Amino acid sequence: MVLNYDKTTFMQISSNINYRSMVNTQSIDCKINLNNSIKFLGIIRESSLTWNKHIDHINSKLNSLGYILHSLRSVLSLKIINQVYTSYGRSVLNYGIIFWGNSSYSRSIFITQKRIVRIIMKPKPRHSYWAMFSKLGILTLYSEYIFSILMFVVKHKDIFTFNNELHKINTRHKLDLHVPSAKLTKVKKEFIIQVSHYSTPYLIVSRK
Questions:
Q1: For residues 148 and 95, is the Cβ–Cβ distance under 8 A?
Q2: Containing structural domain, residue 120
Q3: 103 and 60 housed in the same domain
Q4: Residues of the chain with pLDDT under 50
């Protein structure tokens, strides 16, 4: 097998955004490019363990959708416009949301989402956006995040551990998902830990 250097990149992960890699990426006949971000299966991962570039990428797609909806709003019915958002906008928003949805930077997507809803509804000034989301049947970014986490847990419960599987003590948290311990803040915001935090209350309700 021959390595294709044009399609090969190297990324070293570090929680320090100012970190400079000292790893030699020089091959015998070619140097492998060192990148700070890599796009894999449609998801952009950064060496600093943040999701800013991926969120900017999603925002760019949603802003383009907003422009299209603004142009179509005068010629299409509200129902069709809503279907256009649901078929494209929601699919863009949901892809990989269980990984990046907890990022503080994701608020920029929520702002874009609210702007799109206002384009669809053409409301009066100061009209509540919560009422518009409800009327259109659209989930907010944060609701989509929690819903996606719950669906993932329901489909893959076998990969998670419950507290009563680790100990036999009859505590009020025995039916909670076991949350892995972590010290770094960035690690605490990662997917597997956030899944355990968000899904536990809903799983308890579903058992009753």
A1: no
A2: 52-141
A3: yes
A4: 199-208
